[in-house]
Amino acid sequence: MQVHDEGRKARMMQALYGTLAASALLVTASMPAMADALQGEVIAERWCASCHLVGPGQDVASDQMASFMQIAQRDDLTAENLGAFLRSPHPPMPDLQLTHNEIRALIAYIETLE
């Protein structure tokens, strides 16, 4: 009976180690996305907040511009078409000439607002 219990205990330990390893991979994989979103929030506050409401703590912006929350909730908006939009000039928005990394970070931040 003791041999059977030791085998079961070993299998349980393997399952636990497997679960811990998988959890560590998930956390590690999401770290760049979290870093991008944090960088995107900084970019949004610096470049976008004068016209758009970019976050929950902001209360002053143009009433003519969609908030980032409204943008994030649009069903027809994907990361790809938002990236294309941000890469091309489109009045009345100023041509910010954001880098690809800055655009990716800004999109990552907007995606956190969904």
Order of helices and strands: HHHH
Class by helix and strand content? mainly alpha
Work out the helix count. Answer: 4
Largest sheet: none
Q: Tell me the radius of gyration.
A: 22 Å
What's the CATH class label? Mainly Alpha
Low-confidence stretches: 27-32
Q: Give the beta-strand count.
A: 0
Strand content: under 5%
Look at the structure and name the CATH superfamily. Cytochrome c-like domain
CATH architecture designation: Orthogonal Bundle
Helix fraction bin: 55-70%
Please give the alpha-carbon distance between the first and last residues: 54 Å
Backbone shape: elongated
CATH topology term = Cytochrome Bc1 Complex, Chain D, domain 2
Number of domains: 1
What do these coordinates show?
- Residues 1-35 form the signal peptide.
- Keywords: Heme, Iron, Metal-binding, Signal.
- InterPro entries: Cyt_c-like_dom, Cyt_c-like_dom_sf.
- By secondary structure, the protein is mostly helical.
- The chain has one domain (31-112): Orthogonal Bundle (Cytochrome Bc1 Complex, Chain D, domain 2), CATH 1.10.760.
- Helices cover 65% and strands 0% of the residues.
- It has helices at residues 2-48, 68-72, 79-87, 100-112.
- Helix 1 crosses helix 4 and helix 3 crosses helix 4 (100-112).
- Mean pLDDT is 80; it is low at 27-32.
Tags for this model:
114 residues; mainly alpha; Cytochrome Bc1 Complex, Chain D, domain 2; 4 helices; elongated; Cyt_c-like_dom; signal; heme binding; Cytochrome c2; electron transfer activity
